[in-house]
Amino acid sequence: MLWAQYRKDITVPWDSLLTVENINDYPQKLYSFIKRMISFNDYMDEMLGISYILLPSALLNHCAYLQVYGVAGSGKSTLGYVAAKCRDMPILSSSDTFAAIRNEISEKVFRNPNLLLVWDDLDPKVFTEKPDLYRLLKYGYCRETSKISIAGRNGDVIKFESFCPKIISSIHSLFDESQYPELSRRLLVIEMKKLPNSIGFISPFSINWSGIDKLWSSYWNEDRVKSFLEIKTAISDLNLSVSPDKLIVLIDLLAVLVLGGFCSLSEVPIYLESILNRQKSIKEVSSQQATKELIAYLDEEKDKQDRFAQREGKIIKVYRVNPKHLKLYFEWLKEQGRISEKVSLSSVFSTMRTLGWKLEKDWELTK
């Protein structure tokens, strides 16, 4: 029995959901298609997401990595899955060995110079266990310095190119990992949010994606490659007020947006500023999130105690919070990716004191 054939028969062909009659419309059509599967947190996140999928890797000299960030169930893995399908690329995970990833890159580049690496559910702990994987990210963003040398089985030296765009999904704030500053500097971050309960959204796992990668290949014909390079030159001539290190990793994404009709050349300065402000905002919000979560937790605890006292006909004079319960709650927040793993319990306690709480046997706040 052809079990695989039956499995295919219960999926929906992608071309029944994505119709591209004119290849010039491919970027806009793909953008609308993706938004039926994923909910982004901001318009600039959408622009970075779609432009990254469209990037022609073979034409790049520098490329920041794209971290897809958000709480569990927000669609982080979905974006990488869709990108991998649209480009006919593999999906890697933290469990993959360095040798397996090296072989995957070498094999794919040999057959297709427009490599895109999708890395799902990356845990930074893997860098301690497999330091070569960190080297892959540290050196793989600049084509000139992307060759990695490793020792072969017979003592010989093996070199391979690690350069390519990389989409990394993780609940961990990799951009906030002080232990790996080189990774943080190489990351662009987009945030996802859970899909609303709305008619019209589709599951990417119910789609038969076979052949969709041909759209990407058809889009990047010789004329479009020339137009892309001309747009890059035009953007360089705009004398944008941004540091060279930031422009060098954003100029290709901006050129893709102009080429795809998402913005005009005259709008590039506005889009550039918006992207940079959005990146700054994500990182600032990350550092403030622990305080917001703490305040929400304390407000809920006070509300519970008020309701209990009202039922019992008592008057509350002092609110109390169990330190062990508070610790467990913040450990859960870290597991869910709602706060950075770097948030220490001592910093939480310090904020408690700032809010007027005193630590006796329990945390206490006089009403």
From TrEMBL:
It comes from the Bacteria. SUPFAM superfamilies: P-loop containing nucleoside triphosphate hydrolases. This is Uncharacterized protein. It comes from Gloeothece verrucosa (strain PCC 7822) (Cyanothece sp. (strain PCC 7822)). The lineage of its organism: Bacteria, Bacillati, Cyanobacteriota, Cyanophyceae, Oscillatoriophycideae.
